[in-house]
Amino acid sequence: MIERIIFATGNEDKLREIRMILSDLGVPLVSMKEAGISADIEENGKSFEENAIIKAKTIMELTGEAVMADDSGLQIDYLDGAPGIYSARFMGDDTSYDVKNAALLEKLEGVPDERRTARFACAIACALPGGRILTSYGTMEGRIGYEIKGENGFGYDPIFFLPECGCTSAEISPEKKNELSHRGKALRIMKEKLETILREN
């Protein structure tokens, strides 16, 4: 029986998004901090999915509880998919996203619109006691803008331009972002899989 799900992240902004999307799952969602867990997990996978599984499995084995984790990042086609799985660690863990975003804009200086294509990708893994692992994946397509714009998002949102919205993903409402985002898509797929399991229990 799944009594609660621990989400393996220390990122409060991310957790806020996740809680909005999974609010009606019927099972409490707690952060590692709320669950009293501190763990340094080495994300040495070769893909977003591998990293998400590593995180979820590590905490599940530590607690014996259901654990969900995600790994996500920005893939810029002009930079051969970089920063990709190294998005959070790009230019160092402690470098601010203002600095990271400015550096990426610099790398794309003079690059025309049609070659600035990019996407946010997100893989989610849920490790259940007993060893079963569920996974889901989602993307949000767009392109890299020309300046840092918007206050609503976090991470690379202020440079990620959404042509269908005419603005960056940091300029749209949290509700709209959850509807369009890579994480929103992956979470809704995961939610369906979990609801099936919860019904079985």
Briefly say what this structure is.
The chain is of the alpha+beta class. The protein has helices at about 10-20, 50-65, 95-105, 175-180, 180-200, and strands at about 5, 30, 65-75, 80-85, 115-125, 135-145, 160, 165-170.
Descriptive keywords:
Maf protein; 201 residues; 8-stranded mixed beta sheet; 23% strand; globular; alpha+beta
Number of separate structural domains? 1
Shape: globular
State the helical fraction. Answer: 25-40%
- How many separate helices? 5
- Please tell me the CATH architecture by its name: Alpha-Beta Complex
CATH class: Alpha Beta
Compute the average pLDDT. Answer: 93
Secondary structure: number of strands: 8
The ordered H/E elements are EHEHEEHEEEEHH
Contiguous uncertain segments of 5+ residues: none
Please report which band the strand proportion falls in: under 5%, 5-15%, 15-25%, 25-35%, 35-45% or over 45%: 15-25%
Q: Main sheet, how many strands, which sense, barrel?
A: 8 strands, mixed
The N- and C-terminal alpha carbons lie at a distance of 6 Å
Determine the structural class based on helices, strands and strand pairing: alpha+beta
Radius of gyration over alpha carbons? 17 Å
| CATH fold-level assignment | Maf protein
Helices and strands, with pairings:
Layout: E1 5-7, H1 12-21, E2 29-31, H2 48-63, E3 66-76, E4 82-83, H3 97-107, E5 117-127, E6 133-144, E7 160-162, E8 167-168, H4 174-180, H5 182-200
Parallel strand pairs: 1-2, 1-3
Antiparallel strand pairs: 3-4, 3-5, 5-6, 6-7, 7-8
Helix pairs in contact: 4-5
